[in-house]
Design a protein that fits this description.
By secondary structure, the protein is of the alpha+beta class. It is built from three helices and eleven strands, in the order H-H-E-E-E-E-E-H-E-E-E-E-E-E. About 35% of the residues lie in helices and about 30% in strands. The protein is elongated, with a radius of gyration of 27 Å.
């Protein structure tokens, strides 16, 4: 028999208040990390597309080198069909095919877009939340509308008769 011990089960009001305060502080610290998760996801997708574009360019440039097709306006037979190249790099839009083949859909295999808007010089394709814009100078894939420049959340393949470059813009993601 224990005398003088007055033990009860449960938590005191002070213990509960302390736990609630600790949980509140943790929520304030952690909430901003979770609030920005959508932006982080968009950036990750755009960065992944950036890497895919660079990798595809390296592989198909090697194909053009192997075939000794490094001149201007030459056609290279790829696994996706005949495609127009300049200096061993694929055009953003190949006029060598009918209908025209576009870089992103052809070499990155994004599948069939849910919606396409095109005219004689530009094409915009919708892949869910992701959009692709392509013309004779640029192939862009990212988030936004139109040519994606205003929304500033895309990766871009620039190709002209004189140069090619791959860049990324994530300020607007």
């Amino acid at each position: 028999m224990h005398l003088g011990t007055n033990r009860t089960d449960g938590f005191t009001l002070i213990e509960l208040v302390v736990v609630i305060i600790i949980l509140g502080v943790l929520a304030v610290i952690a909430a901003p990390k979770f609030i920005d998760i959508n932006r982080d996801a968009k950036i990750a997708v755009v960065q992944g597309a950036h890497g895919s574009i660079k990798e595809a360019l390296e592989m198909i440039h090697l194909k053009a080198q192997i075939d000794n097709k490094l001149g201007d306006n030459v056609n290279v037979e790829t696994q996706y069909g005949n495609y127009q190249f300049y200096r061993g790099y694929p055009e953003t839009r190949s006029e060598a095919t009918n209908p025209y083949l576009y870089f992103i859909e052809t070499f990155l295999d994004f599948g069939t877009p849910s919606n396409i808007v095109k005219n004689n010089s530009t094409r915009t394709a919708n892949y869910g939340d992701l959009n692709a814009y392509e013309d004779n100078g640029f192939s862009r894939i990212g988030y936004g509308s139109g040519n994606l420049l205003a929304d500033q959340c895309y990766t871009e393949y620039l190709h002209t008769s004189a140069t090619e470059a791959v860049s990324i813009e994530t300020d607007g993601c």
